[in-house]
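Question thread 4412

I'm putting together a teaching handout and wanted feedback from people who do this every day. The idea is simple: show students a protein as raw sequence, then show them the structure tokens that encode its fold, then repeat with a second protein so they can compare. Below is the first pair exactly as I plan to print it.
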Amino acid sequence: PICIITNVRLDHQEDMGDTVEDIAASLCSTVPVDGTVITGERNPKVVDILREKCQARGATLIVAEESETSRALVDQFDYQQFEENVAIALAVAELLGIDSATACRGMLSAAPDPGTTRVTRISDSQQPDLFWVPMFAINDWESTVRVFEDVQQGLPEGCRNVIALNNRADRSHHVAVVF
């Protein structure tokens, strides 16, 4: 069996613990005995936790590394994509014996998840252009901030930001810090 632990973020603390280390340990309950775990996680403490749990269960840990292929591919999506997610998909494909070119074609032709972040320009001759950037599929604050900063870099200079935020009660304390 193959298990993907994309990353470990401060999210769902009410169920998984208050620190990334607690959350990593909780996510490790999914590590299959004698299986393979693929992650895009970069935090060395978290990777060590994943590695220890994999060793205890006889599983192999693969930390998907970004590459020239993942860097080139991430820019070809017409929506926001994280390079480490592309690296994970390429690692899974390699493990399954799917060549990189086929995997890349498949990723680019796949329909994105609903709510995927993409910038839509809305033009009206009577008003300045508006850029709509839904970020509904982002699940944690670290990713939210990262996507927000990435999107801002691609918008015209001086573009005004208006943020409409529908937030869970356990996340409200982050709003003042981030925005």
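The second pair follows. I'd like the answer to focus on this one:
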Amino acid sequence: AAAQLAEIDDFIAHLPDGYDTRVGEMGSLLSGGQRQRLAIARAILRDPAILLLDEPTSDLDPVTEAAINLTLRRLARDRTVIAVTHRLGAIQQADEIFVLDRGRLRHHRRIAPTVPTGRCIRPGSDRAPTPSLT
């Protein structure tokens, strides 16, 4: 079920040894998107109270990204999810948004269901301002 929710079950089914296939140290034989989806499946299996995601859809094609975002929305119903992301699609259902710029908090807003998320994003961009730690 976790592999299905993470949109990785078809890929696993086509591996030579299915779930027993070796994928290299730290998934070195997988694409970035495959590693992301496996990590999400592992997180689903652990069923944490707090789920921390770092760019959860960064290496995914648009169709898989939309499916993963839907899965993450379902997961967020029963837990706290903290997502670090530059992608608008990953935060559209957020309750609160924090925007960092050069390592400093520049914007924080509790989002009402009727407030468009795009108000926290640069005009003409689908990405939040790029944070920097320098």
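Top answer:
Good format. For the second protein you could add a caption like this: The longest helix spans residues 32-46. The chain has two domains: 2-85, 94-134.
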